[in-house]
Write a structure and sequence with these properties.
Length: 89
């Protein structure tokens, strides 16, 4: 496969709560992260909204008051979902 990524990915396993108005919040484990996004593992057990949807994510258990991060669903694979970080600028 020809990798065309702008930012290198780093393996990182963290629990992240993913929320969207059309679904119940779910806590999933990250597989890797980069400057521009994160891949979360679903193993087919969590139904996330379709590509193009905006979700909110929040790291669990690593800090006292973690920020909410807006992310766009970029791709859905059998084992997880690729999410792109959104900025306000």
């Amino acid at each position: 496969m020809n990798e065309q990524r702008k930012h290198p990915r780093t393996a990182l396993a963290l629990e992240v709560k993913i929320s969207h108005q059309a679904m119940a919040s779910v806590v999933l484990l990250t597989r890797d992260i980069s400057e521009s996004g994160v891949f979360v593992v679903t193993d087919g057990t969590a139904a996330l909204p379709p590509v193009g949807s905006v979700v909110e994510g929040q790291v669990q258990g690593e800090m006292e008051d973690p920020p909410l991060v807006r992310m766009e669903v970029m791709r859905i694979e059998p084992d997880g979902v690729g999410l792109r970080f959104l900025t306000d600028d």
